[in-house]
From TrEMBL, chains A, B:
Keywords: Acyltransferase, Transferase
Keyword Transferase in record: yes
Top-tier EC class: transferase
Descriptive protein name: Malonate decarboxylase alpha subunit
Pfam families associated with the record: Mal_decarbox_Al
Enzyme Commission number, as recorded: 2.3.1.187
Amino acid sequence: MPTSTNTRWTKKRDAKRDRLSRISSMIEGKFVQQDNIVSVLERVIEPYDRVILEGNNQKQASFLSKSLANASNEALHHLHLIMSSVSRPEHLDLFENEIADRLDFSFSGPQSTRIAQMIEDEEIKVGNIHTYIELYGRLFIDLIPNVALVAADQADANGNLYTGANTEETPTIVEATAFKNGIVIAQVNEIVDELPRVDIPSSWVDVIVLGDEPYQLEALFTRDPRHITEIQILMAMLAIRGVYEKHSVQSLNHGIGFNTAAIELLLPTYGESLNLRGKICKHWAANPHPTLIPAIESGWIDSIHSFGGEKGMEQYIAARPDVFFVGSDGTMRSNRTLCQMAGQYAVDLFIGSTLQMDYVGNSSTVVRGRLAGFGGAPNMGHDPKGRRHSTKAWLDMQKTGDELVRGRKLVVQMMETHQPGNRPVFVDQLDAIQVAKEANLGTPPVMIYADDVTHLVTEEGVAYLYKSDSPAERKEAIAAVAGVTELGMTSTARQKHRLREQGIIATTDDLEIDVKKSNRSLLAAKSIEELVMWSDGLYDPPEKFRSYWT
Amino acid sequence: MPTSTNTRWTKKRDAKRDRLSRISSMIEGKFVQQDNIVSVLERVIEPYDRVILEGNNQKQASFLSKSLANASNEALHHLHLIMSSVSRPEHLDLFENEIADRLDFSFSGPQSTRIAQMIEDEEIKVGNIHTYIELYGRLFIDLIPNVALVAADQADANGNLYTGANTEETPTIVEATAFKNGIVIAQVNEIVDELPRVDIPSSWVDVIVLGDEPYQLEALFTRDPRHITEIQILMAMLAIRGVYEKHSVQSLNHGIGFNTAAIELLLPTYGESLNLRGKICKHWAANPHPTLIPAIESGWIDSIHSFGGEKGMEQYIAARPDVFFVGSDGTMRSNRTLCQMAGQYAVDLFIGSTLQMDYVGNSSTVVRGRLAGFGGAPNMGHDPKGRRHSTKAWLDMQKTGDELVRGRKLVVQMMETHQPGNRPVFVDQLDAIQVAKEANLGTPPVMIYADDVTHLVTEEGVAYLYKSDSPAERKEAIAAVAGVTELGMTSTARQKHRLREQGIIATTDDLEIDVKKSNRSLLAAKSIEELVMWSDGLYDPPEKFRSYWT
């Protein structure tokens, strides 16, 4: 009988105790002084550590990221950073300053150009680009963090945290770190006597510091209706009539962008005229977009579960607890992990946009010189093959004659045939393939794979790609709605006729859409000001959206 | 400009206040007396409510489920029950007694025969059968609960909860309910002055009651090595050599069953002889199986994140915090949602077993007269198409010549060619198809779809199904390892030879496995007693597993 090897089994716990003992002179309870934070980070973090730095596309642990970038690279070097979003300049300064050298991440919108250059220059070794919950999953398996740097709204004297509307990913990354004897450091905007409610219990947190200013919070999901074009309104009519109504889409995700904002603002007008209220768009996995206000106020929407909060929407949300997820204290709780899970498994439809689509339907927002990543799109924009419940929309996608009666998620790509600058969206080969070679990625950063896309909406019509029998027919269907692009011009009148006859594509005529109506008067709100009016004055837009009307 | 419809937007919050006011004479703080629980349930729950009743395959809110079954069906009727697992007799009594009539669930192992009969008799209207996280996802979208009935280990006087090793699904279902103004009722085993740590904050909970006895906890993942057969040992050798070693599988999920228990017990013996320590099986999404102890003690395993706890493993886990997820208090925290997410996205391999597989590779544990559901298997046992990070194992599955370089998850089915009673596991048509018709399900309860299965391991060898080019070739490969079954006998020597040449199947000879060694002496532990010895006496097996050796 073999016996235990008598290895020490508490190395991580011992290491945590040692690290925290190095700051014993600087800490009271769990609290450290703002001025000491760089020194605290230099003592509790060690070279080669895996450090998860909170920063997703909304909330940023900005005081902690700035402080980490101010650390000495003699004390801290070769850090392996894990980040949902590479968003702030100092996120990349950390690599330039040789504090960090490895990176696993999901999204890099604002830094996508600089990050591409730094990877090419070998200043950053990229592990992989992930979806959000794929990255969170790895925090429990093979990317368990040594240290988490997170942001909260408030702490009480015991060290409990309130994260409120912007709870987002904080509980998940804290859980992965705290329960594997990692060290959790939180910046807070305020220290208060009593929290509205506890979002993260004190026993999960090691070090708390008051930030120099409130954490950075981006109003990323606010779209000013003034900028919605008539082409976007036409595409929104096509989507509502040709996709949402056709398949009775009851539950869905909308992301960022003017295309989907147009759909939201057409529900109380065009949708109402089609008598669709209560029949479509009742249950949402979505951020609290201001452009959802008219549909909510008109009684279209039963529930919205959110990934994060949205600046300016706080009072409106608090006044609409029947719709949003709100705690006993009256403020929202978002949860990026749970909303992504719901958006993956529990909604009928994902709709998104892309910068490039190849001729068979693969798409990516990664283009040459810009490594943007995807965030949650690939998670929600695929057919979740572990889904087993059925709805009308899901069953509509099944192949005829399949005795296993297996439906599919509706994955819709919606975009104009040309990008700004008149660059066609349809390309022979995705830039992603070349980018992967240059950045030495294991696999090209494709956002949505062709075999997952069920519908394509352009200003030319709707292509029902789920009905196509082969890649060749899919290509024909894409070409038929590709307009005046190289691909579009390969589509003959004869092909288009056949595809329309077979119901593989549909034009505004086929869908009985009155093109004359596709103008801005169809928008339920034509400006931020009108959104505020719809909200009974509860929506409080951020400063930068007020310039037009104050 | 339209204005708000002035609907009341706080209906759910008002209803919650009204419901709680009905028990104001019975509640002190958040606490109600045990004797009053039936009356409390009758007053805060209303007919037609959606009630989520905690009960997964380990922890059960057994005091609350018994109490609900004792309610009057004049007070409570037409409840829509949502349950991860239909496990206890009173779960179905609720339907017989006409307290509930609708059910959405995931798993019904112990009640699978009775539930099938009741559905046929139309005593239960089944919505859908789900995976766990699919069901949890719907709690935030279109199955938002009015009431949650959950179980915890301890509460403090303020109403904070400690759920410890069996945290499991509790935080997720509480979050879905509490933040949409539903009512959260928790049974606890103890009320204490100070919790070891807080798992669920007080402000998420409305009513707490001390259970009449500790909540039911099943040692579902304990497998006595005495019952492992030599055929299982042979299959385990095939899996280790032909799958784990071949593809360098570093991260994985093992579920329930003797097949995978045999693999676990062969790592420190057979695996060691192949010099595989540190090369395979380092990172796990798995419950804390006692049969993992020898591999842990031999230094094979870096980390295990768990769905739930396992009875008897508490002290061992507390002494191995480097491996398990353990809080600052020293006890484990499991999390079914996060572990399923990790098991879906972050591991290379899922391995499972089935009761039936059809000739092209679809499988199900649902057989005529038994509607068992699947729990987490379809979630982890499919290729997650939202995955974007790559590993050696994942890339091994890619199709040659695909410029998108898209790998796949390894989804392995491992089973003997015959079930107990000599019934072949391979069937022309899954019973699930007929069951779906009889139970009026939207879609047949298939556990793993053929196109997701990459490997099949039987006592005859390994079939590398991911290499097959067509359903016809996949059928040939399955037949080649199907032994003396109707399907197996269609396989000719010539076919087998070709499939071996092409590497689509492999036998023990091909894999250089010494069949003579496949006997019980290869098990690192041959009994529960030896597991206890490996654990230095820290593993404390439940009573029913001690009968053999005390």
